[in-house]
Design brief:
mainly alpha; 2 domains; two-stranded antiparallel ribbon; 3 helices; 2 strands; 8% strand
Amino acid sequence: MPIIGLGAGYVRQAQKVDAALARLIPRLIERGYQVLVTADHGMDETGNHGGDADCLRQVPFFAFTDRLKANETEMLDQRALAPTILALLGINRPVSMTASPLV
C-alpha cells in the first residue's frame, strides 16, 4: 500500500531500515540488551516536519524490554522518553525533566 505524501525512495529506505531492525533486534535481545525504537517527529501529507498537529507529534514507539510500565495501546507522552532512557541507564534525570519515566 503506498504511503501518501512520501516518495518511492523514502519508502524504500524505510523498508531497508525495517528489515535491518528485524534482523538486529532479536540478536540484541538474546545478548541481554533493552531496545527502544522511536522517531523524533512525524510528517504531514505535504512532507512538513515539526509543529503541533497530531500527525507531527504522535510517532511510533516500540520497546523491547520487560521493564517498561505501559499498555501497548496506551498513548504515551513523548516527554517521558528521555527520562525513561536515563532510568534504564541508571542515570538520575535532571529536575527540568518533569515527565515521569515509564520504568
